[in-house]
Amino acid sequence: MQSVINKKLIELRRKIEEYDYHYYVLDDPIVADPEYDRLFKQLKELETQHPELITPDSPTQRVGGAPLKEFAQVQHTIPMLSIDNAFTEDDVNAFDQRIHDRLHTTAEIDYCCEPKMDGLAVSLRYENGILVRASTRGDGSTGEDITANAKTIHAIPLHLRGEHLPKVLEVRGEVFMSKKGFERLNKEAAKKGEKIFANPRNAAAGSLRQLDSRITASRPLSFYCYGIGDIFTHNMPKTQGDLLEWLNEFGLPVSSLIKVVHGYEGCMAYYKEIGAEREKLPFEIDGVVYKVNSFADQKKLGFVSRAPRWAIAHKFPAEEAQTVIEAVEFQVGRTGALTPVARLKPVHVSGVTVSNATLHNMDEINRKDIHIGDTVIIRRAGDVIPEVVKVVPGKRHHDVKKIHLPKNC
Ligand code: IVH
Fold first, then answer.
1. Model-level pTM?
2. Closest protein CA for atom 23 of ligand 1
3. Is 20 helix (H, G, I), strand (E, B) or coil?
4. Which ligand 1 atom minimizes the distance to the CA of 115?
5. Is 390 known to be catalytic?
6. Cα 128 to ligand 1 centre (Å)
7. 215-236 pLDDT, tens per residue?
8. Is 21 in contact with 14 (CB distance < 8 Å)?
9. What are the tens digits of pLDDT across the range 155-212?
């Protein structure tokens, strides 16, 4: 009897994992939600009847558990580094030149180009294919143990797929929140009168660093990997591009925007291509990353202080800036609706000077506690109207003025 039930459990888990893999890793769903939910419910019920047969990597274990008192510390065996930034084409050209000089070559360098995800870095440790620990970057040497939280993220496999799995594989990547997920979360929070997040990055960070993993489970987090830490295997790929493909074959999600290009010119073309798509992407990126593709060359180049010499982040113009609200005026729409507009001390953001930003409506003003004279964060994404995101805490003067609806036209 037991073995019949176990067979059924294994079968259900296998199906659900396959559906998750298609949805989260291949970005190509093969089942409708009701069917998925039906199987999930079936698995859940069967496990409730036979709790002794629950495995730690069962899909049902993604719901989160009892809250922790505090996060345990994790020592990273291989430090989690940062990357130097480039803001101009000249910066990238100089980077490419330094690589040539250090490698004593005039031949074009191959670069692996990747989106720079705007989330937070995590390290996932798989032993014999099983996820045993997840940690945050922390200061690069010591991070926090967020295993329970990471397990609630469907894009993070609880065990790897395939054969010839490495004995140890530490996967490094970015946990992030999609733009849609962020908007949905903030809308719900606003309805309940809860704290709203300034941007998807903050929302992702706030969601992942929860002592109560059931809260993390309720948040729309996702994950892409871009590298490794500790590894023990016999068939290590030789380039960054191959590494990412290899990781993908283990069922780990890798961005489909990654591309290996030739030389500085290839990097520039990539930057422009991704820059043009930036607004349409379902998640936020703050730039692209160029990595010397050959691991042999990476080794020759080494590191300087906390960053590798073989990688650079080419940043996009920032979409957020800080300024002061000098006045608030009300615009009357076609339907007679009043829209409050903040007159700002002009500020440069994503390539243009902004002097007006929408405050949406009185509810938003009250919820964000915005006053005239406040120092605020404004945001301008693409061609949409700039908006006031939030008040910068601790910068309020005593002479700020409350915003009132006009009494007459
Ligand atoms: S590689 C040795 N690749 O950016 C280099 N980082 O500024 C280690 N990030 O802490 C990082 N996308 O949180 C790398 N494709 C990408 C990335 C990426 C986003 C983040 C990551 C890292 C920070 C460094």
1. 0.87
2. 82
3. helix
4. 15
5. no
6. 26
7. 999 999 999 999 999 999 888 9
8. no
9. 999 999 998 899 999 999 999 999 999 999 999 988 888 888 888 999 999 999 999 9
